[in-house]
Amino acid sequence: MHMADALISPPVGAAMWAVSAATIAYSSAKIRKGLDDHVTPLMGVLGAFLFAAQMINFSIPATGSSGHLGGGLLLAILLGPHAAFLTLASVLVVQALFFADGGILALGCNIFNIGFIPAFIVYPLVYKQLIGTAQNSTRQKTAIILSAMIALQLGPLCVVLETCLSGISALPFSTFLLFMQPIHLAIGIVEGIITLAIVSFVRKARPEILLDALAARPVDPHPVKKLVLAFLAAAIITGGLVSWFASENPDGLEWAIAKVTGQEALQGATGIHTALATLQEKSALLPDYSIKAKTAAAPTDPYGRWGTTASGLLGVLLTLSGITLSGIALRKTAALSRKPLPSGEYGSGR
Amino acid sequence: MIDNSIMDFRQLDLLAGGDSVIHRLDPRTKVLVTLAFIIAVVSFDRYALGALLPFVLFPVATMAIANLPVGFFAAKVMLVSLVAVAIGIFNPLLDSQVLVRIGNVGISAGWVSFGSIILRSALTITAALLLTATTGFSAICQALGRLGMPEVFVRQLQFMYRYLFVLTEEAQRMARARELRSFGKGGQGIRALSSMVGHLLLRTWERAERIHIAMRCRGFNGRMAASCSTGFGLVDLLFLLGWITLFTLLRLYDLPRLIGDTIMTLTL
Amino acid sequence: MSHHIVAARQLSFSYPDGTPALKEVSFCIHHGESVAVIGANGAGKSTLLLHLNGYLAPAAGQVQIGEAAVTRHNLDEVRRTVGMVFQNPDDQLFMPTVYDDVAFGPLNLGRAPDEVERSVRTALASVGAAHLADKPPYRLSGGEKKRVAIATVLAMDPAILVMDEPTAGLDPFSRRELIGLLQAFNHTRIITSHDLDMVAEVCQRVIVLHEGGVRADGPLREIFADAQLLHDCRLEPPLSMQSCVNCGTPATGGNHLKQNDYVCASAEAT
Hints:
The complex is a heterotrimer. By secondary structure, chain B is mainly alpha-helical.
């Protein structure tokens, strides 16, 4: 499941961006150093493949719903962790930009949950350990299905953690967890079966593909462990720093601006500024509640019970009509300064 | 289903080929403004609703100036917002303290934060789609590259995007062929999917090998030579500074509240 | 490389799984010749083409381009001299825009930016695709893709053009345009195709491959007149050279022949 921008707070978004960006840089450097120039087209085309394969739905037995392939583990098995991670990340970028699956700020979270976890945690620490060096088929089945299940437990776990840390949704951690994990247990088993079927198919048709993947990319567990620790540290530090800003200074942005422009400029207050500020403070419709709203309508409301709401609604109405009007005006001016387009070419999609 | 998503995809790509002041801006400008917009929107606390509304100006102005079809984006936003709705709908159930009263009707904090989630979702989704529709994917990749993204990843994004069209069509043909012979039930299961995806994977692999041959035949040796593109001009600077200033102001001051209060003070 | 000859001497090749693909293939093609390599599916045509620019290295024998044999050390020079146009243009056009794609080869050759620009523009103009420069490849029609794929190769100024199935999948009009283009080139041309009518219009000489070996090599008209040979190699004469369907009068055949001329004059009169 994709994280959405709407459910995420800037500290969490920034922390996960930091981790994902660092991993992209690290994996890119690895790929660049590799001498194998055939991975360039291979990664590109496999990204497109995964994207296309995800569009083919299948019905999940006994549920009546339909699902699609995730593909993280599959790519890691075919390409090794670095190339698989970059390929998965590129698919997520396209999904964020074209289908708004997730979103731009949540992209860091999604790249971590869907890309980093299968490629850098499950593949080296679970799959490689389980499969060992043997080409035993039972062992392989177990390795693939278990790895897929673990990947699809860790991913949703991160979704839950990220959502709860953000604090936009009011869902308590345990409720959300109990809701997500069992569903993804089923999804993980299905993912494991499909991955296994595809890997077996490839083994039959083009065995050298899998042998190449095994031979060319041995994974040394130590750097991976170090890597995981390093990135966890990076995430905690970034997230911690940003949330420290956010909590120390209820309005992080305001604080940052005060820092940049100098305290005096903001607080040292011309007449109008103070007037506006007090006005805003007195009339705040939705004051800065930490987690749960404590009070109902503010007792200090200068205009009485109706006043606050009315002025709020009035302001909202005026703002929206202002925006609508400016939209229409802008469109008209833009249309005047533009050559007429052939009709239909940019028509509505529906 | 698969046909629809491909149609939407192509539509956005076509829109990016349009010509307007916004289309002509340096892609980096648009990437940065979109990022600033999203950060400003999501940085509001969970009960912010009125203060978020002025941000609607950005998508409205972009759609107006770039002459984009409003209906298309509205439909897409509604579709994608479902995730946010699914998670957000728990807020009214769990957070039932009354926060606002209109007359005698109390509105709970949960409903306010639910409304806030929906509005955030609509704003951030629209911003992402508008970036794509006014810039085009390839230009966004180049912009990210010039903003410091590793060259290997830029190349990966461009390569993948090129073959998305080829492979989604291939998958579409396979899905159609399956549907025509499955009569509603049989053949839609995991077995058929695995086999289809397996075949698609092998064909893709062979295609990658052919592309590699074609690249080697034209002197490819592992490094991609870059080509240059547009520069950052005065219009870009104004656009960037203008929007970022506005976002900052709107983040600091609750505009609808200011307007409402000013009018109330004047009339009372 | 003054004479631009392309020669194969006793060329043999087997796939990694041991299947033999080429068996002692020998021929010599001279400057400016237009030669078709024809044969049934799996006869070894594509494998042969991949040897001509050194992508595949022969198990035995050698390929000679100009005065030098193809070795690992002169691959760059060979690939610049021998331009290869693949059957599926989607495999050949991999860059974000047509311009970038045509510039890919020249940039890899390390040419100066203004020189790259010039060769890209010239190459696109020579295939009538100058207006497509800024388009992404996935928005081109089949015929446009094919012409741009040829331009990507022309931009490197090759002396020899090697084309795999140039007319496959094209509509009749695009095919006709492409034939015009191929006739206009004065490069040495080596073409594989199942479109034998196109071959009849573009080439003077035909090499017939059968099960990995050269079965016949000679002037086009002679080869296409030998019905038994063609039948043995799972081929048949092009429509333009088949006998009249109505009365059996043999067609005259050859390059000058108009398309669809297979109903002879006497049959038309009756």
